[in-house]
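User: structure tokens for this one?
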Amino acid sequence: MPTLRQALADLRAEKDAARDPVATTIMNRATEQLAASPIMESVVKQGDTAPMFARPDLDGETVRLRSVLKDGPAIVSFFRGRW
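Assistant:
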């Protein structure tokens, strides 16, 4: 069974191969610029305590981290909109 890191790398390679190479270049450049910017200093890092928050899920329903944590540890993934 592949590790999560390998599975994500495989998925990225698959999506990159299916996407217009110009779009991939633009996306990669924007990611590199963001990673090099000062904004990264304020990003929550692995091992940090996440702030309690509430956000809508894909169905528009509010999800509260405090409620999710009642069932045990949580993995939180943020993304921009629906692709």
